[in-house]
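Q: Convert this sequence to C-alpha coordinates.
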Amino acid sequence: MMKVKRFLAVLIAALILTGITACGAGGSGQSQAPAAQEATKGTTKQTKNVALTVSAAASLKDAMEEIKKNYESEKPGTTITYNFGASGSLQQQIEQGADVDVFVSAAEKQMNALEEKGLLLDDTRKDLLGNRVVLVVPKDSTAVGDFKDLTGEKVRKVALGEPASVPAGQYAEEALTKLGMLDAVKSKAVYGKDVKTVLAWVETGDADAGIVYETDAKVSHKVKVAAAAPQNSYTPVTYPAAVIKAGKNTDSAREFINYLYSEKSKPVFEKYGFTYIAK
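A:
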Protein backbone atom coordinates (compact mmCIF):
# COMPACT_ATOMS: atom_id res chain seq x y z
CA MET A 1 0.00 0.00 0.00
CA MET A 2 2.82 2.37 0.85
CA LYS A 3 4.40 1.68 -2.51
CA VAL A 4 1.17 2.57 -4.29
CA LYS A 5 0.80 5.85 -2.38
CA ARG A 6 4.42 6.73 -3.07
CA PHE A 7 3.94 6.01 -6.80
CA LEU A 8 0.83 8.20 -6.96
CA ALA A 9 2.62 11.07 -5.22
CA VAL A 10 5.50 10.92 -7.69
CA LEU A 11 3.05 10.77 -10.61
CA ILE A 12 1.08 13.79 -9.37
CA ALA A 13 4.28 15.78 -8.85
CA ALA A 14 5.42 14.93 -12.37
CA LEU A 15 2.09 16.05 -13.83
CA ILE A 16 2.19 19.33 -11.93
CA LEU A 17 5.76 20.02 -13.09
CA THR A 18 4.79 19.27 -16.71
CA GLY A 19 1.84 21.68 -16.50
CA ILE A 20 4.00 24.48 -15.12
CA THR A 21 6.55 23.99 -17.92
CA ALA A 22 3.80 24.02 -20.54
CA CYS A 23 2.33 27.23 -19.13
CA GLY A 24 5.76 28.84 -19.12
CA ALA A 25 6.31 27.96 -22.75
CA GLY A 26 2.85 29.18 -23.65
CA GLY A 27 3.43 32.43 -21.79
CA SER A 28 6.66 32.93 -23.67
CA GLY A 29 4.89 32.38 -26.99
CA GLN A 30 2.19 34.89 -26.07
CA SER A 31 4.73 37.54 -25.12
CA GLN A 32 6.47 37.16 -28.50
CA ALA A 33 3.27 37.33 -30.58
CA PRO A 34 2.59 41.08 -30.07
CA ALA A 35 6.21 41.86 -30.96
CA ALA A 36 5.91 39.82 -34.14
CA GLN A 37 2.65 41.58 -34.95
CA GLU A 38 4.26 44.97 -34.41
CA ALA A 39 7.15 44.03 -36.72
CA THR A 40 4.68 42.94 -39.39
CA LYS A 41 2.63 46.06 -38.85
CA GLY A 42 5.73 48.23 -39.23
CA THR A 43 6.61 46.52 -42.48
CA THR A 44 3.21 47.27 -44.02
CA LYS A 45 3.54 50.93 -43.09
CA GLN A 46 6.79 51.43 -44.98
CA THR A 47 6.51 54.00 -47.79
CA LYS A 48 6.80 52.64 -51.30
CA ASN A 49 9.67 54.29 -53.17
CA VAL A 50 8.69 55.52 -56.61
CA ALA A 51 10.94 57.11 -59.25
CA LEU A 52 9.13 59.16 -61.89
CA THR A 53 10.70 60.39 -65.12
CA VAL A 54 9.10 63.54 -66.52
CA SER A 55 9.96 64.87 -69.98
CA ALA A 56 9.06 68.55 -70.22
CA ALA A 57 9.59 71.47 -72.57
CA ALA A 58 12.73 73.47 -71.77
CA SER A 59 10.68 76.63 -71.15
CA LEU A 60 9.12 74.93 -68.10
CA LYS A 61 12.40 74.30 -66.28
CA ASP A 62 12.19 76.96 -63.56
CA ALA A 63 8.56 76.33 -62.67
CA MET A 64 8.86 72.54 -62.75
CA GLU A 65 11.93 72.53 -60.50
CA GLU A 66 9.95 74.37 -57.84
CA ILE A 67 7.00 72.02 -58.24
CA LYS A 68 9.37 69.07 -57.83
CA LYS A 69 10.45 70.33 -54.39
CA ASN A 70 6.86 70.84 -53.32
CA TYR A 71 5.67 67.46 -54.57
CA GLU A 72 8.55 65.41 -53.16
CA SER A 73 7.98 67.09 -49.80
CA GLU A 74 4.30 66.19 -49.92
CA LYS A 75 4.91 62.64 -51.22
CA PRO A 76 7.79 61.05 -49.24
CA GLY A 77 9.32 58.18 -51.16
CA THR A 78 8.62 59.74 -54.57
CA THR A 79 11.58 61.00 -56.59
CA ILE A 80 11.15 63.01 -59.79
CA THR A 81 13.78 63.11 -62.51
CA TYR A 82 13.33 65.68 -65.26
CA ASN A 83 14.37 65.51 -68.88
CA PHE A 84 14.11 69.03 -70.32
CA GLY A 85 14.45 69.74 -74.01
CA ALA A 86 12.74 70.70 -77.25
CA SER A 87 9.24 69.23 -77.37
CA GLY A 88 9.90 67.67 -80.78
CA SER A 89 13.02 65.91 -79.55
CA LEU A 90 11.22 64.66 -76.44
CA GLN A 91 8.38 63.38 -78.61
CA GLN A 92 10.83 61.39 -80.74
CA GLN A 93 12.47 59.91 -77.64
CA ILE A 94 9.11 58.68 -76.38
CA GLU A 95 8.28 57.20 -79.78
CA GLN A 96 11.59 55.35 -79.72
CA GLY A 97 10.80 53.76 -76.35
CA ALA A 98 12.48 56.10 -73.85
CA ASP A 99 11.56 55.40 -70.21
CA VAL A 100 9.15 58.28 -69.58
CA ASP A 101 6.18 58.48 -67.21
CA VAL A 102 4.84 61.99 -67.93
CA PHE A 103 5.20 64.33 -70.91
CA VAL A 104 4.52 68.08 -70.89
CA SER A 105 4.83 69.66 -74.33
CA ALA A 106 5.05 73.32 -75.35
CA ALA A 107 2.64 72.73 -78.25
CA GLU A 108 -0.31 70.58 -79.25
CA LYS A 109 1.49 69.20 -82.32
CA GLN A 110 3.87 66.89 -80.44
CA MET A 111 1.20 65.62 -78.06
CA ASN A 112 -1.18 65.02 -80.96
CA ALA A 113 1.45 62.85 -82.66
CA LEU A 114 1.83 60.67 -79.57
CA GLU A 115 -1.90 60.40 -79.10
CA GLU A 116 -2.43 59.33 -82.71
CA LYS A 117 0.06 56.50 -82.15
CA GLY A 118 -1.75 55.34 -79.02
CA LEU A 119 1.15 56.20 -76.68
CA LEU A 120 -0.84 58.22 -74.13
CA LEU A 121 -2.73 56.78 -71.19
CA ASP A 122 -6.46 57.29 -71.76
CA ASP A 123 -8.14 60.24 -70.05
CA THR A 124 -4.91 61.79 -68.74
CA ARG A 125 -4.31 64.43 -71.41
CA LYS A 126 -5.29 67.99 -70.59
CA ASP A 127 -4.27 71.49 -71.64
CA LEU A 128 -2.25 72.83 -68.73
CA LEU A 129 -0.77 76.25 -69.51
CA GLY A 130 -0.67 79.16 -71.93
CA ASN A 131 2.17 81.52 -72.89
CA ARG A 132 3.03 84.42 -75.22
CA VAL A 133 5.70 85.01 -77.85
CA VAL A 134 8.00 88.03 -77.43
CA LEU A 135 11.02 89.63 -79.04
CA VAL A 136 13.96 90.06 -76.64
CA VAL A 137 17.24 91.93 -76.88
CA PRO A 138 20.26 92.34 -74.57
CA LYS A 139 19.51 94.55 -71.57
CA ASP A 140 21.61 97.47 -72.81
CA SER A 141 20.59 97.25 -76.47
CA THR A 142 19.13 100.26 -78.28
CA ALA A 143 19.16 98.78 -81.78
CA VAL A 144 15.79 97.03 -81.62
CA GLY A 145 12.51 98.43 -80.40
CA ASP A 146 10.08 96.47 -82.54
CA PHE A 147 9.87 93.53 -84.94
CA LYS A 148 10.34 95.78 -87.95
CA ASP A 149 13.82 96.67 -86.69
CA LEU A 150 14.96 93.08 -87.29
CA THR A 151 15.35 93.86 -90.99
CA GLY A 152 17.61 96.87 -90.33
CA GLU A 153 21.39 96.96 -90.81
CA LYS A 154 22.09 97.17 -87.06
CA VAL A 155 20.80 93.64 -86.58
CA ARG A 156 23.16 90.94 -87.82
CA LYS A 157 21.96 87.84 -85.96
CA VAL A 158 18.47 86.85 -84.84
CA ALA A 159 18.17 83.78 -82.60
CA LEU A 160 15.25 81.44 -83.24
CA GLY A 161 14.33 77.97 -82.08
CA GLU A 162 14.78 75.23 -84.68
CA PRO A 163 11.24 75.16 -86.12
CA ALA A 164 11.32 71.43 -86.92
CA SER A 165 11.55 70.50 -83.23
CA VAL A 166 11.19 73.64 -81.09
CA PRO A 167 7.63 74.98 -80.71
CA ALA A 168 8.96 78.47 -79.91
CA GLY A 169 10.65 78.42 -83.31
CA GLN A 170 7.41 77.34 -84.97
CA TYR A 171 5.47 80.16 -83.30
CA ALA A 172 8.22 82.63 -84.24
CA GLU A 173 8.04 81.69 -87.93
CA GLU A 174 4.25 81.98 -87.86
CA ALA A 175 4.50 85.48 -86.40
CA LEU A 176 7.23 86.58 -88.81
CA THR A 177 5.22 85.25 -91.73
CA LYS A 178 2.14 87.15 -90.59
CA LEU A 179 4.25 90.30 -90.22
CA GLY A 180 5.65 89.82 -93.74
CA MET A 181 9.31 89.56 -92.76
CA LEU A 182 10.16 85.86 -92.51
CA ASP A 183 12.44 85.77 -95.55
CA ALA A 184 14.35 88.88 -94.46
CA VAL A 185 14.88 87.52 -90.94
CA LYS A 186 15.82 84.03 -92.14
CA SER A 187 18.94 85.43 -93.80
CA LYS A 188 20.11 86.53 -90.33
CA ALA A 189 18.77 83.63 -88.31
CA VAL A 190 20.77 81.34 -86.03
CA TYR A 191 18.83 78.34 -84.79
CA GLY A 192 18.95 76.94 -81.25
CA LYS A 193 18.15 73.39 -80.11
CA ASP A 194 15.61 74.74 -77.59
CA VAL A 195 14.22 78.03 -76.34
CA LYS A 196 16.71 78.25 -73.45
CA THR A 197 19.57 78.18 -75.97
CA VAL A 198 17.94 81.04 -77.89
CA LEU A 199 17.64 83.03 -74.66
CA ALA A 200 21.29 82.34 -73.74
CA TRP A 201 22.54 83.64 -77.09
CA VAL A 202 20.70 86.93 -76.54
CA GLU A 203 21.92 87.18 -72.94
CA THR A 204 25.56 86.85 -74.01
CA GLY A 205 25.20 89.16 -77.01
CA ASP A 206 25.94 86.36 -79.48
CA ALA A 207 22.64 87.36 -81.08
CA ASP A 208 21.29 90.89 -81.42
CA ALA A 209 17.75 89.71 -80.80
CA GLY A 210 15.75 86.55 -80.30
CA ILE A 211 12.19 85.30 -80.19
CA VAL A 212 11.26 83.41 -77.02
CA TYR A 213 8.35 82.96 -74.64
CA GLU A 214 7.29 85.71 -72.28
CA THR A 215 8.09 83.40 -69.35
CA ASP A 216 11.72 83.03 -70.49
CA ALA A 217 12.14 86.78 -70.68
CA LYS A 218 10.66 87.16 -67.20
CA VAL A 219 13.22 84.96 -65.45
CA SER A 220 16.25 86.55 -67.14
CA HIS A 221 17.91 89.67 -65.80
CA LYS A 222 20.12 90.02 -68.88
CA VAL A 223 17.46 90.66 -71.52
CA LYS A 224 14.50 92.95 -72.00
CA VAL A 225 11.35 92.63 -74.04
CA ALA A 226 11.46 94.84 -77.12
CA ALA A 227 8.00 93.86 -78.33
CA ALA A 228 5.31 91.23 -77.98
CA ALA A 229 4.20 89.46 -81.13
CA PRO A 230 0.58 90.27 -82.01
CA GLN A 231 -1.51 87.45 -80.58
CA ASN A 232 -3.36 86.98 -83.85
CA SER A 233 -0.06 86.37 -85.65
CA TYR A 234 0.56 82.87 -84.28
CA THR A 235 -1.29 79.83 -83.01
CA PRO A 236 -2.17 80.23 -79.31
CA VAL A 237 0.66 78.79 -77.20
CA THR A 238 -0.73 75.81 -75.30
CA TYR A 239 1.12 73.34 -73.06
CA PRO A 240 -0.67 69.97 -72.87
CA ALA A 241 0.36 67.26 -70.39
CA ALA A 242 -0.32 63.52 -70.29
CA VAL A 243 0.77 60.20 -68.79
CA ILE A 244 2.73 57.91 -71.12
CA LYS A 245 1.04 54.52 -71.43
CA ALA A 246 4.31 52.53 -71.51
CA GLY A 247 5.62 54.15 -68.31
CA LYS A 248 6.57 51.89 -65.42
CA ASN A 249 4.63 53.86 -62.80
CA THR A 250 1.32 54.81 -64.38
CA ASP A 251 -0.61 55.09 -61.10
CA SER A 252 2.01 57.37 -59.53
CA ALA A 253 2.33 59.28 -62.81
CA ARG A 254 -1.41 59.90 -62.79
CA GLU A 255 -1.13 61.27 -59.22
CA PHE A 256 1.66 63.62 -60.27
CA ILE A 257 -0.14 64.91 -63.33
CA ASN A 258 -3.27 65.51 -61.27
CA TYR A 259 -1.06 67.56 -58.96
CA LEU A 260 0.02 69.66 -61.97
CA TYR A 261 -3.66 70.20 -62.78
CA SER A 262 -4.51 71.15 -59.19
CA GLU A 263 -4.78 74.47 -57.40
CA LYS A 264 -1.53 73.65 -55.58
CA SER A 265 0.48 74.10 -58.78
CA LYS A 266 -1.40 77.10 -60.13
CA PRO A 267 0.42 79.81 -58.09
CA VAL A 268 3.81 78.35 -59.01
CA PHE A 269 3.12 78.45 -62.74
CA GLU A 270 1.64 81.94 -62.52
CA LYS A 271 4.66 83.11 -60.54
CA TYR A 272 6.83 82.32 -63.57
CA GLY A 273 4.50 84.08 -65.99
CA PHE A 274 2.42 81.20 -67.39
CA THR A 275 -1.29 81.47 -67.89
CA TYR A 276 -2.88 78.60 -65.98
CA ILE A 277 -5.68 77.08 -68.07
CA ALA A 278 -6.17 73.60 -66.57
CA LYS A 279 -9.75 72.94 -65.43
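Residues 191 and 201 are 10 Å apart (CA to CA).
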